[in-house]
Amino acid sequence: MLTGQELLDGIFIGSIYALFALGYTLVFGVLGIINLAHSAVFMLGAVFAYSLVALHGVEFWLAAPLAIAGAGLLGAFIEFAALRPLRRRNAPPIAALISTLGFAIACVGLIEQADGSGPLGWLWRDGANSVSFPAGTVPQTTYRLAGLTVPAPKLAILVISIVLWLALGRLVLRTQPGRAMRAVAENPRASALLGIDVDRVILLTVVGSSALAGLAGILFGVAIGDVSPYIGRDQIELRGLAVIVLGGMGNIPGTILGGYILGVIEVLALVLFGSGAHAGISFAILFLVLVVRPHGLLGTRAVERV
Fold this sequence. Notes:
Elements: H1 4-31, H2 38-55, H3 60-88, H4 93-113, E1 142-145, E2 148-151, H5 152-174, H6 176-186, H7 188-193, H8 198-224, H9 231-247, H10 252-273, H11 278-292
Antiparallel strand pairs: 1-2
Helix pairs in contact: 1-5, 1-8, 1-9, 1-10, 2-3, 2-4, 2-8, 2-9, 3-4, 3-8, 5-6, 6-8, 9-10, 10-11
């Protein structure tokens, strides 16, 4: 069994998984595709924030919003360069998967080759190495709550995650942009006939999902102390995919639930089997869940889009 401290650690890491996977969920819900560039945006969000703080002396409270905005701009670039042209040509979904995957590979390659001597020296100077934010970037205060040790950065992650989930739920369910997003997700052609600017809705969705990925990358870099070209590809991408499948493809509450479940499962597997087996155990349990319920815990059977 997990101790209270270990359960808390699982909740913290699950919050990051859920934040990251929400971007997958939003884009899949509207476009019906998985944006495989999402992991690169996650990585670049952390890299942007680290660069501003460590290389350019910007205070973290200013660097973080700037990095999130940069991640959102990357989302706009992905939409205009990798998604919209294919959509205009009625390309099959696999084309968008390959296009976004190519973007992700290119981003990782550029960052891992940046050693300070080239044009990317202003952004990254450590090549393939892993670095941490400078000491004192964020307060390292530790709180004692009900006998549990709660570091300030991890508590901030939990609070930020809850606030964002509530805000996102309100946006999708109770605002005009949210209603337009749900209409496009249900039937893009009918939405266009009703006067909804489908391209604009898709652009805002991709930009918003990328901003979430950038925020998740920053939180990961601060809480885990690891910023490198590979944090998206090696540490978060497959887990994000697992979360949206576990919770239900395109289901926001399911994504949040799936993130927490996967985080707690990983900590449990780490305690029982050690660091070498926890990822494999997590995906084995995921496989068993999907055998029982193929469309996820809160998902429904897919309806064909027209």
